[in-house]
Write a structure and sequence with these properties.
Bound molecules: coenzyme A
Distance between the termini: 21 Å
Number of strands: 15
CATH class of the largest domain: Alpha Beta
CATH architecture of the largest domain: 3-Layer(aba) Sandwich
Helix content: 25-40%
CATH topology of the largest domain: Peroxisomal Thiolase, Chain A, domain 1
Structural class: alpha+beta
CATH superfamily of the largest domain: Thiolase/Chalcone synthase
Number of helices: 10
Radius of gyration: 19 Å
Number of domains: 2
Oligomer: single chain
């Protein structure tokens, strides 16, 4: 048994193809779909996103992010004894992207691997599961990854959704520690809202039944998101015996700057304490939080010893928060 699970290394990866809003608007115009940089920036805060090449899968993005996280932790891939990948865009129906990643990393120690499917809340779910397994003594060095290729499931004839998402991956190494690391978490779901954000298609009898493309009621998602995130934050802080004033950094799911501003306002946090990458990455679903965390660590914003609150929200409807000491 161990006291804590602590993040000892972070990594991230964005595929090289970057599209600004103007680039995307020009591509959509060829389909007769009208949008503009002005509309996208004003409603979402997004200025650019990255799209993976057609032959690049979530496991490829996860591999690059994982290599960085493993290097930052000062360990080797063989030291990893648990892999959890949060993704809604797996390489295959099965096996898991985590199994594919284990093989690509050359890990031959037989460690357990599995995917977590909680859409944009996937990383906070995966981190909570890894934390519990480490504290229970089931693992000592977990690789926890969020990796997505949402470009594959976007409907480029639907301007209300296709401008919002991007591809990428983020990873952390989470190790058993006597020093404080993850302090508390708070996860939720309400399956009565499945239909407001989903990819309804499924594989059956050799065919895809239903649409394999993302569909969303943006306003319903917006309302639910702003209604739950500050409550999850407070519940997490309560469990750890801390208050809003103790938060050094808020790293919310990067979906929309207006949702982040609303949460920050409700938590009485200045936007200076909020890590924002949505402008450059768009919404990368389960990858967005570990991507933002890695950027904030590498650019010197997030430092060792600081309290960081991670918050996820997305399809399901799912939401949750993880409070940790770096
Ligand atoms: C999607 C979202 C940006 C739309 O913003 P909104 O302010 O609700 O905008 P509306 O849907 O009311 O649309 C307003 C107008 O803009 C138009 N519009 C929609 N998408 C557009 C686009 N990409 N470019 C230009 N105009 C667009 C609509 O057609 C509508 O026009 P109309 O008034 O003539 O009918 C917003 O609802 C949102 O961010 N929701 C949350 C989405 C999210 O974060 N999802 C992921 C959660 S994990």
């Amino acid at each position: 048994m161990t006291s804590y699970a602590r993040i000892t290394g972070t990594g991230s990866y964005l595929p090289p193809r970057r599209l600004t809003n103007n680039d995307l608007a020009a591509e959509l115009a060829q389909r007769g779909i009208e949008t503009s940089d002005e509309w996208i920036v004003e409603r979402t805060g997004i200025r650019a996103r990255h799209f993976a090449a057609p032959d690049v899968g979530s496991s490829d993005l996860a591999l690059e992010a994982s290599r960085q996280a493993i290097e930052a932790a000062g360990i080797t891939a063989q030291d990893i004894d648990l892999i959890i990948v949060a993704t809604s865009t797996p390489d295959m129906v099965f096996p898991s992207t985590a199994a594919i990643l284990q093989n690509k990393l050359g890990i031959t120690n037989g460690c357990p691997v599995f995917d977590v499917q909680a859409v944009c809340s996937g990383f906070v779910y995966a981190l909570t599961v890894a934390d519990a397994m480490i504290r229970a003594g089931t693992a000592r060095r977990a690789l926890v990854v969020g990796a997505e290729v949402f470009s594959r499931i976007l409907n480029f004839n639907d301007r209300t959704t296709c401008v919002l998402f991007g591809d990428g991956a983020g990873a952390v190494v989470l190790e058993a520690s006597e020093e404080p690391g993850i302090l508390a978490s708070d996860l939720h779901a309400d399956g009565s809202h499945v239909g407001i954000l989903c990819v309804p298609g499924h594989v059956s009898g050799g065919e895809i039944l239903g649409s394999p493309l993302l569909t969303m009621d943006g306003q319903a998602v917006f309302k639910l998101a702003v209604g739950v995130l500050d409550k999850a934050a407070r519940a997490t802080l309560d469990k750890a015996g801390l208050t809003e004033a103790d938060i050094d950094w808020l790293i919310p799911h990067q979906a929309n700057i207006r949702i982040m501003q609303s949460t920050a306002r409700k938590l009485k946090l200045s936007m200076d304490k909020v890590v924002v990458t949505v402008d450059q990455h768009g919404n990368t679903s389960a990858a967005s939080i570990p991507l933002a965390l890695d950027h904030a660590v590498r650019n010197g914003q997030v430092k060792k010893g600081q309290h960081v609150l991670l918050e996820g929200v997305g399809g399901g409807f799912t939401w949750g928060a993880v409070l940790l000491k770096m």
